[in-house]
Amino acid sequence: MAAGTKVNQAIAGGHTALYHAAYSGHTAVVEALLSARAKGDQTLFGDGATPLMAACERGHTAVVMALLGAGVEVNSSRKDGCTALMIAVEHRRAAVVAALLQVGAEVDAADHDGCTPLWMAARVGHEAVLGALLRAGADVDAALLSDRTSPLMIASEWGHTPSVVALLKAGAEVNKVKESGYTSLMFACNEGHEATVAALLGAGAEVNTARDDGCTSLMFACSRGHEATVVALLGAGAEVNKAKDDGCTSLMFACSGGHEAIVVALLGAGAEVNLSMDNGITALMDTANTGHETIVTALLEAGADVSKSRADGHTALTLATRKGHSAVVAALRPGGHLLLSQFFTADRFL
């Protein structure tokens, strides 16, 4: 390197020659710059990232080792609190993660929201990285500060079943509750991750725990149309007639979404067909309003009361008529299709 070269000179944004070399994976250049006394901890002006973080992001293990060998601080953080280890985890750099842990990277270092390397590993679903962090003693239940989402919850939401199993084996609290009452099981049920749901239930997940508004895992699965998940929950003892604070039941959720197979499963499990919400709406009314003829038939066969009315006086028949669902009208009332032409002249229903 020529004498007098300003090895630490930064260009726009704070980028130095060392930062660019580390990012690009040019190990020999990095070593030469370090020998010329390049500052290994010099940061970018914006987010405070270091050459080590750049190398970790790109997965350049040899560069990482060269920087660490030159005494670069392994646990320095960006302005948001993110460390080199977190960056390596986020980008699934297993070899880099192993190298950082070997030289003393803080396994539970957290960013400003409480996100730890283990939380990030659970989020991206990298089983090898997650396993390395667990073996290094990572806190298995360390949750975000903002909403208390745990590693198990985020892994469950994304359906990373191997990670879920590993976290459970490491002692993760299966029934831990985050802000608003969500559990890992609710996250998995909402997305229909069957294998993840099975793993959680097998680990003792409480199937009838409700969110702050009364919504249960079964309701989540019914509303999204995840039939296999619904069957699994019913088999695990889910309360089929449990209702939200507003009176909405799993059957109503399934009817509203037009999920016929789930409706049949719920009815077979003993769902009460004539329960109503606080405003008087029943499963039959909701289904008649949306025009799902086959579900209307199933509800009628299960004993749905066609005479029930909601708070404003509407019944299943008037709702179906207003929407022009002729097949539903006919099912609700023999000859009911004749009401259609008459109904739209009745101002009280328009």
Can you put this structure into words, describing what you see?
The chain has 350 residues and is an all-alpha fold. Among the domains are: 178-272, Alpha Horseshoe (Serine Threonine Protein Phosphatase 5, Tetratricopeptide repeat); 274-350, Serine Threonine Protein Phosphatase 5, Tetratricopeptide repeat. It is 49% helix and 0% strand. It contains 21 helices and no strands. The chain has helices spanning 17-24, 27-35, 51-58, 61-69, 84-90, 94-102, 117-124, 127-135, 151-157, 161-169, 184-191, 194-202, 217-224, 227-235, 250-257, 260-268, 283-290, 293-301, 316-323, 326-332, 339-343. The longest helix is centred in the N-terminal third of the chain and has 9 residues, at 27-35. It starts with 16 loop residues before the first helix and ends in a 7-residue tail after the last helix. 47% of the residues are buried.
What is the topological layout?
Blueprint: H1 17-24, H2 27-35, H3 51-58, H4 61-69, H5 84-90, H6 94-102, H7 117-124, H8 127-135, H9 151-157, H10 161-169, H11 184-191, H12 194-202, H13 217-224, H14 227-235, H15 250-257, H16 260-268, H17 283-290, H18 293-301, H19 316-323, H20 326-332, H21 339-343
Helix pairs in contact: 1-2, 1-3, 2-4, 3-4, 3-5, 5-6, 5-7, 6-8, 7-8, 7-9, 8-10, 9-10, 9-11, 10-12, 11-12, 11-13, 12-14, 13-14, 13-15, 14-16, 15-16, 15-17, 16-18, 17-18, 17-19, 18-20, 19-20
In short:
With 350 residues, the chain is mostly helical.
- Please name the fourth-level CATH homologous superfamily of the domain at 178-272: Ankyrin repeat-containing domain
Content of β-strand? under 5%
CATH class of the domain at 178-272: Mainly Alpha
Major β-sheet, in short? none
Q: What is the 3D form?
A: elongated
Count every beta strand, where a strand is a DSSP E run of 2 or more residues: 0
Spans where pLDDT lies below 50 across 5 or more residues: 335-350
Protein structure class: mainly alpha
Quote the average pLDDT: 92
